[in-house]
Each structure stands twice: as C-alpha cells, then as structure tokens.
Amino acid sequence: MEDNECRDGRKKVRLANTPLSASQILTRILPSGGGDAENLQRILRLLTSYGVFSEHREFGGKRMYSLTEIGKSLVTDVEGLSYAPYVLQHHQDALMSMWPLVHKAILDPTIEPFLKVHGEPAYSYYGKIPEMNGLMRKAMSGVSVPFMTSVLEGYNGFKGVKRLVDVGGSAGDCLRMILQKHRFICEGINFDLPEVVAEAPSIPGVTHIGGDMFKSIPAADAIFMKWVLTTWTDDECKLIMENCYKALPAGGKLIACEPVLPDDSNESQRTRALLEGDIFVMTIYRAKGNHRTEQEFKQLGFFAGFPHLRLYRVLDY
Ligand SMILES: C[S@@+](CC[C@H](N)C(=O)[O-])C[C@H]1O[C@@H](n2cnc3c(N)ncnc32)[C@H](O)[C@@H]1O
User: Fold this and answer.
1) Cα of 13 to ligand 1 centre, how many Å?
2) How many Å apart are CA 186 and CA 131, to the nearest integer?
C-alpha cells in the first residue's frame, strides 16, 4: 500500500488550503471525469454550516470552499488521533442500516434492533470483525483524548489512589492520561473484553486485563468508568456497579463519567446532542439502555451500594 493510497486501493485526495469550487474538487476526486458539481456543492454548503468547510464568494457570486481546522482534523488525519474514526465508526453499514429500524425499539424493546438484524448484540458483533473492533478502539481514542483533557483540568478526585481500574477502558487512553497527570497512582488496570485488550498498545504503568464486567472486576482503590453505563439497562448497570462495589475497599470510590440528561427537553444544542445520543444507544446497543438524569444515576448508585453521588460537570461537553 502506497502512502497516498487508502486500504481499498483508492487514491487519497489532498485538499489544498486554496479555496476550490465544487467542480474543481470534483475533478480531483474523479480525475477521469463525471459527477455532478451542483449536487456536490449542495453537500459542501451543508458541511459549511457545520464548520467543516469555509465558503468564499468570488466576484460574480461563485462559491469556493476550503477546509477549516475542524475539517482538516476530520479529513486528513484518518489514521491518527482525531474525530475521524468516530465519524467512520458511526457510519459503517452495520450501524447505518439500523436507522430505518428505530421504531422496532418502540414496538418490541425485548429484542434489540441490532440483534434482530445482525443476529447478535453490537459489542460481540464488533468483536468478531477485526476491522470493526479496531475502528471502535480508534474511535474511542479519538474522542476520549480531548474529552479527558477537559475532565482532568476540572476534576481532582483521584487523591490517595494507588491502584486504579478503568472498566471498559478500550485502548487505555483514559488511564494513560490519568496516570500521566497523577504520578502518585502506581498501577493502572485497563479492563475490557479480551478481544479489545488483545490489540491495545502497551502503556507504561498500565496492565491490560481481558474479562467480562458482568462477571467480575479486578480489585482496586478506585474504579474509573467512562461511557459504559449509558449503553446498558438499569438491571445491567446495577450488576456492573455491584461488581465495582465488590472490587473496592470500604469507602472506595467509583468515578463514572457519563452523559447526564437534563430534566427538561429544552432546545439547546447540548440537550439535543444528549437526546440524540440516547436514541443512538436505543437503536444500536440496548433498546432499554439509556442516557440518564442525575436523579436516575443517584438511584442506580444507591441500589448498588453507593449511597453518595457527587456530580461534576464537564462544561465544554
Ligand atoms: C463506549 S466504549 C467506551 C470506551 C472507553 N471507556 C472510552 O471512554 O474511551 C464502551 C467499552 O465497553 C467495553 N465493554 C463492552 N462490554 C463489556 C464487558 N462485558 N466487559 C468489559 N468491557 C466491556 C467495550 O469493549 C468498549 O471498549
């Protein structure tokens, strides 16, 4: 595979900083000709409204486009750490084909729409396809690194922890960042499904352990968990949290980093994104898995043996 080639043999298209018209972009994408520049321009206008491209109007009104910084990180850094793998992960056929079936989660929530279509739940489906499994890990790394930068700027609850487990820690990026910031943590355990940790990179101070959080969780002074509870039902969350409780010493701490739904359905972008995420979970993961309000987290924790919940908000997200 050459440097300028994608895995499927297509040539990568380098988009210059100089603004290009839709037909100029089309010529680069399809050097042998063809395509509809007007329809491409319709898509470019939409992407401009999301900040991926900038639109420049030439004398006479012709529209020209260049990638913004967001666009560059999405388009040019597909193999590195960026949001691109996350976007790609969500747009795989196996996930996209689920959207016309959202209604199935309402008609019969006892069987997941994903299970009905693909014959097994999402995580085990990913686990059997190395490309999907790898993309999921990269997707999580790409979104988790900027997110954890914000978390670690504001949250200071790791004091006194010597051994920390990250449950569902994927490639281990969250632990790596926590250990880099808090040098007093001597040992990090990245705990995830065996097929996920099998491909995780080696990280100083971190041991990767494969297992099933529904069975047991390695012992630690504190447990960290990010974007895990939200994909499971209340009963499953209780089981995961009970296993956390068993893995902790008396007075131990579970640090769960999860989306928190507001009580009201307001029109803010943040609320919309949270509500969309909730529908994503319902459609792809568990029909009765869901984003939760602060009160719902309090109740879950209480029933699993964690009587005190302290909420820290990460404001940029
Ligand atoms: C949404 S991802 C979050 C990954 C990581 N915590 C992060 O924020 O970047 C959920 C993770 O839970 C893991 N997972 C799913 N089922 C699991 C199980 N039964 N035991 C342990 N981990 C599991 C998945 O493999 C995945 O890495």
Assistant:
1) 34
2) 33
DSSP3 helix / strand / coil % (the chain, rounded to 5) = 45, 15, 40
List the end-to-end C-alpha distance of the chain, in Å, as a whole number: 38
**pLDDT in the model for residue 316:** 67
Which residue has the least CA distance to atom 18 on ligand 1? 212
278, amino acid identity: D
Exposed e or buried b for every residue in 235-247, given b needs 16+ CB within 10 A? ebbbbbbbbbbeb
pLDDT, tens digit (0-9, with 9 covering 90-100), for 278-312: 999 999 999 999 999 999 999 999 999 999 999 99
Residue 222 to residue 264: CA distance in whole angstroms: 33
Ligand 1 centroid–CA 62 distance in Å is 47
The ipTM (two decimal places) reads 0.99
Give me the residue spans of the domains in the chain.
Answer: 20-75, 143-304
So what's the architecture of 143-304 in CATH? 3-Layer(aba) Sandwich (3.40)
Using the CB atoms, write b or e for 161-170: b if 16+ within 10 Å.
Answer: beebbbbbbb
Is the CB of residue 124 less than 8 Å from the CB of residue 154? no
Place of tokens 């913004």: 68
Residues with CB under 6 A from ligand 1: 123, 140, 144, 168-170, 174, 192-193, 196, 212-214, 226-228
pTM of the model: 0.81
